[in-house]
Amino acid sequence: MLTFAQITPVTAMFAALSVSLVAVLIFGGLYVQAGRRIRTLTAQLWTARAHARDALVLRENLLEAGQEAVAVWSAGESKPVSFGNAQGLIGECLGGPDGAAAATALAALRENGTPFTILAVTPALRRIALRGIVVGGHTAVFLHRVVMRDFSAGNPSQRELPPSILERRAAPGVSGAAGGAIPTDAYAQTLDQMGTGVAIFDGERRLLFSNASLAAILRLDPELLRRHPKQSEILDCLRENRQLPEQIDFAAWKREREELFGASGSPRSEHWHLPDGRGLRLTRRPIGSGGMAVFIDDVTESLRLEAANSALLKVQQATLDTLQEGCAVFGPDGRLRGHNTAFARLWRLSEGDLSDCPHIKRIGEACVRRTGHDGIWDILISEVTSASSERHKDWFRLERLDGRILSLSLTRLPDGSALALFSDITDFCRFEPALREKAAVA
């Protein structure tokens, strides 16, 4: 073992060189190993990028080749990522007659995440179905053209129908067709689930399309509808089954319905009150080539509720008319919602003054013309139109210019309306001093 005194400069130099050589070998080995690791990771990264690029290309190709075009908006982005010319199709929809509805639906989807499904007609009279949803924080709109299968001459092919056939309320889903067109199965299934009966007639008054609800509402044999009868045959069958309103001259009534074909203009509605007590509402909408679309709703329950509500209102009005106090109900908008005869009699108002839900200011002006300006209606108008949440207020002995003394009570109702009660206490006030004097003497 060398001592410190035995270490010469040469020995120290060789020792330092040995240490440096060992350090170089160690770091060299580490560098080589790190280089190999870096090259391996780089190769893996490039492989992953290639796979991701291939997957992206495959996805884009699949979307481009699919039946639906897709537009996707990321959060905060104003322009979508478009597949299958989705952005161009959206532009066509916005430029067509249904552009306003489509724009509103798109805005609601992007701002509030409200999903939608609409059918839009482009300026070129193409029909585009749009379906908007939210997917993983992104908003997406799927679009596809709506085409119809034509079975005329027994040779199915694709062709376009007039836009009026595909009304947004009810596209013509049907159970079959003969010499006409039927929609795709998806539309037929959708229309069969509707509660509204749908029937489409061609220019020769022959039934082309019908959904399942039509047979259920009219209580017709589905086999009859599958034979595509004319409207006259359907009306005759309904008459036999007592599913038509009773008519004094059925032939004339039937002829009027036949003459509606080919007529232009807005849709026409009529109500049928059937012998079995049911009520139906029919809406007839002219379509191209002299045809007609008929929508039928069973409104029996609605009519029953309307009749019950009307009877309840009559009972309430009769009850109010028995009161000696004049009462009036003013809505949150200040308009008269109801009153009794005592109110009209107390303020000398005619039916014309109280018709068409007049505003409280208009009623006040009419009362001032008859009884003079005494400030009573100024107080009432201020309280009714104020935003005060106080539920109940009383004022007593408000004297009119004609000498009548009134008691006014104002109550806020749960819906924000105001109930005003007027009591004529003139006689009580006149006799009150005498009654007090008599009581004091006693």
Superfamily at the CATH H level of the largest domain?
Answer: PAS domain
Strand content: 15-25%
Major sheet size, sense and barrel closure: 5 strands, antiparallel
Residue-averaged pLDDT, rounded?
76
Helix/strand class: alpha+beta
Report the end-to-end length measured between terminal Cα atoms: 143 Å
Task: Tell me what the CATH architecture of the largest domain is.
Answer: 2-Layer Sandwich
Radius of gyration: 41 Å
Indicate the CATH class of the largest domain: Alpha Beta
Low-pLDDT stretches: 148-183
- Tell me the number of helical segments per DSSP (H or I, 4 or more residues long): 14
CATH topology of the largest domain: Beta-Lactamase
Based on CA inertia axes, which overall geometry fits? flat
Helix content: 40-55%
Count of strand segments: 18
Indicate the topology:
Elements: H1 9-65, E1 69-73, E2 81-83, H2 86-94, H3 99-112, E3 116-121, E4 127-135, E5 138-145, E6 148-150, E7 157-159, E8 181-182, H4 185-192, E9 197-201, E10 207-210, H5 212-218, H6 222-226, H7 231-240, H8 250-258, E11 268-273, E12 279-286, E13 292-298, H9 300-321, E14 326-330, E15 336-339, H10 341-346, H11 351-354, H12 360-371, H13 376-385, E16 392-399, E17 405-412, E18 418-424, H14 426-441
Antiparallel strand pairs: 1-2, 1-5, 3-4, 4-5, 6-7, 6-8, 9-10, 9-13, 11-12, 12-13, 14-15, 14-18, 16-17, 17-18
Helix pairs in contact: 12-13
